[in-house]
Design brief:
The complex is a heterotrimer of chains A (about 600), B (about 240) and C (about 170).
Chain A (H helix, E strand, L loop, with lengths): L1 H16 L1 H39 L4 E5 L1 H5 L7 E17 L2 E9 L11 E5 L6 E5 H7 L6 E4 L2 E10 L15 E2 L11 E2 L2 E5 L1 H7 L4 E8 L5 H7 L4 E4 H8 L1 H45 L4 H30 L21 H28 L2 H5 L10 H7 L4 H12 L1 H29 L9 H36 L1 H9 L4 H39 L11 H27 L3 H5 L4
Parallel strand pairs in A: 3-10, 5-7, 8-9
Antiparallel strand pairs in A: 1-11, 1-12, 2-3, 2-6, 2-11, 4-7, 5-10, 6-7
Helix pairs in contact in A: 1-9, 2-8, 2-9, 2-10, 2-15, 8-10, 8-14, 8-15, 9-10, 13-17, 14-15, 14-17, 14-18, 15-18, 17-18
Chain B lengths: L6 E10 L6 E11 L4 E5 L6 H8 L7 E6 L2 E2 L5 H10 L1 E4 L11 H11 L4 H14 L15 H13 L5 E5 L7 H16 L3 E6 L2 H4 L4 E6 L2 E7 L17
Parallel strand pairs in B: 3-8, 3-9, 6-7, 7-8
Antiparallel strand pairs in B: 1-2, 1-4, 4-5, 9-10
Chain C lengths: L2 H7 L5 E2 H12 L10 H11 L3 E3 L12 E4 L1 H12 L9 H13 L4 H25 L5 H33 L1
Antiparallel strand pairs in C: 1-3, 2-3
Classes of the chains: A alpha+beta (about 600), B alpha/beta (about 240), C mainly alpha (about 170).
Chain lengths: ~600, ~240, ~170
Amino acid sequence: MGRLLLIGRLALRDLRRRRGEAVLLLLAVLAATTTLTLGLVLRDAAADPYRDTRAATNGPDVVASGPSDRLVGLATAAGVTEHSGPFPVAKAKIQAGGRTSDVQAVGRDADDATVDRPELIDGTWTRAGGVVVEAAFAGALGLHVNDVVVLNGRSFSIAGVAVTAAAPPYPQANCYFPCAIGGGADVPPGLLHNPGLVWLTRADVLGLTDSPTYVVDLKLADPNGTEAFIAAHDHLQMKSWQEILADATDVAKDSQILLLIGAWLLGLLAVASLSVLVGGRMADQTRRVGLLKAAGGTPGTVTAVLLAEYVLVALVAAAGGLAIGSVAAPSLTGASSGLVGSAAPPPLKLSTAAAVTLVALIVAVLATLVPALRAARSSTVDALADAPRRPSRVGWLIRVSARLPVPLLLAVRVAGRRPRRAVLAVVSVAVTVSGVYVALILDGFLTSHPPYGGYDDAQVAALRHVLLVWTVILLGLAAVNAVVITWATVLDNRHASALARALGATPRDTTVALAAAQVLPALAGAVLGIFPGGYGLFAAVIGITGGDSSRATLPSPWQLMAVVVATVVVVAGLTALPARLGARRPVADGLTAPG
Amino acid sequence: MSDDPVLRARGLRKEYGRDEGLVRAVDGVDLDVAAGETVAVMGPSGCGKSTLLHLLGGLDRATGGQVWLTGRRIDNLGERGLARLRRSAVGFVFQSFHLMEELTAVENVELSGLLAGRSPRAARRRAEELLDRVGLADRTRFLPSALSGGQRQRVAVARALANEPALVLADEPTGNLDSAATLDVLQLFDSLHEAGQTLVIVTHDARIAATADRLISMRDGAFVDETRLTGGTTGELGALLRLED
Amino acid sequence: MQQEVVLALLAKEPSHGYQLRARLRDALGPLGDGMNAGQIYVTLTRLEKAGLLAVEPSAAGERADRKVYALTADGQQRVAEWVAETGWPKPDLAEFHLKLIAAASAGLADPIAIVDTQRRELLRRLRDAQRAAMAEPAGSDAALLLEGIVLRLQADIRWLEACEKNWIRRRSAS
């Protein structure tokens, strides 16, 4: 126990001493954990309110529709415990506030049925001349209680707004009449397009049409046995509550997929950033490692102290990500209005918290295990001598660079001194660019006409919002990564730059060299990020979601060129600034720097 | 030998800090070094001799005074001009060698040539010549970590000579070396002197200082004494021992 | 006890024998503990016989250790010659050390100038020895001996630099 405390104290003290770097580490993991939390919370955000609604309204297990004579026998079918209806359903056109939409009007009088008791969130239930509107539909058309609407030419006043679990919220619908969800302008005539759900009195419904269909709500003895039940009655049109749930969470599911893509990318990027940050810190930590070992610490203790620091950071990042994610999630769950409890922030489930914490720990351990082991195994003498990590020698690079003009000669050699860092730079740029590539495609998808999935403008906006969120986080983390790598490179090369200048290189040579040493890997990363990176990522996304890739418009060559050029310019700028500052100082100062 | 001094300094000053914290690292130094001369500047640590060397070679900027190298004024050059100067007119030898750890001996030496714009083949050839001249022909492909201190310093000397500089500046060249390695470097400097190379050496090691033609003592940033070591008791080796009492 | 040292100690002013002994003890510290108490009187008598010292007239019947000694003109000249002399190697360092102290206290010469002069001389000798050593084949007997001479000279030069630093500090403190 004492050892654990000691390890913990040492770890905390070291983190406090290096506050700036600890913050950077935290940010890197935080980006990944926040996005992951958002994704997981979103998945729960729709499912739980639906379940709540189902419980509150005693939602049906199966909804069956069709001519009334066919539905009659269902009430007494095997496995059915309760039923409501049959209720008449009419198709109509509603005019409200200058907008026209198809609706399906269900006729229910004030007597509460046993199954499916829609819960009023405003106003009262149906009365003669009074219509109750489904909550999401009301929201989409901007309808409120006491507004006047026209149904098939007849005026009605809105009596109330309600939620139900017997049908998914607008713009999804149970198709009691042949209908189409989404598809835009090319909906075949005669089909309802995105019909909304309203309730009228039986009399009013029968007054709207002479050919109503009927719907009955059933509760089964085994709520999970809906598939078997539907199969047993395959001559009837039936929908199970699981299918309704799927429809209800459609947008949320897509948002969740988007967020999970973002979380994956951010996780990869976080591993890359941590590797860079930690790899750099390891050189500074060797002296403390040496002291620990000289004082009798075993390699095991040393590894434990080093890992403890990163585990601490990961735990804080997990907690932070969970907090930020659960607070920010409601802004992305707008599409799940129309369900009970959707106004309250989605609760944080234990499984979500566990998953996010686990991911944070894995990211931290992955990035730091190798350097920590290496530091622990290093010889004590070397560590105490506080020798900075020796630069690597890549023989063929040195030979090839001799033929290049001076700035490129120096650039290639600078990059070759830390091959692992160069690889990490390539990887992090590639991950970022492939994310941007996929984001461009998805954005094009969402803004294409007709809109994907039948979503209305508000829902498309919500999805694009989600896309924007993780794209911004991705770019932000990539920028942090780039800054860290470029600053580390400039600092690492102070001595070598000063020496090159003492031997006759001009300050411009060394500045260009340092910038080029970053730009070349960035360029490689940008190209790889487009192909195979972005390409492969998009294929993976399509594979996972089972989407339709034929509708995807790949980014134009101009857009790709712009991405590559932007990457190069940003990286060059980020390096050139510290490099130029360093190059202005007298050579003698740089020669005394470690290296 | 021409009459113009290879190196000339007048009123050279380097100050740090301000008011009470003002430190005069170099306080009004005048110096003339003729072609082919070896000048040693001796003094205790902290007397400013390394700073002086940096100023003479353009590695640092003087607070005041002027420096001429091969007749050209260098204290008012920009960094680019100084870089060009370092390419062709000055070679440096440092106490801690300052070799690139990841380059072999020959790659370290040829770097000077490459930075000066020589073709890779010409730079490589000259590097091998120079390494042969300093006695390391069999170790050209060794990394610095595989070389002893004395060998590393010899590589550094070869590097300093790569572009045939008018002046070689050495800052405590034997500071990190043991007695035997010091002797190696002494012999090397002696052979450079024989070949007519102009040398300015800054040191607190009497052995290196004794190889100079002129010995200047420095204290608290200023020159306090100057001695010509040639002449005097040369040859009277018997005086070195008291065989009778 | 080097005769010249005793002479130099009298250069400032005439002294009793026991005063001279006390000053020597102070200058040499613990290294002077082994000094024979009577040795200084033997040296004083010898110097008197050589005409470099004179005994000042004193009250009749005084004991030998109460005699007051003073430099003669010859003695002063001998001291001046000794101060300027730069012979080396010395059997031990005490003589040079005392030379500096005596010269400073009697105002005979600037001790820092003495150190500088000696140092210059040693550097010249170092140069000669080094050249000779480099001219000999490596590992020969002569080379070995010369290396020893070089190393000793180097050590002595280092000590002289310490002396210089010390005396500069004393001067700026006073």
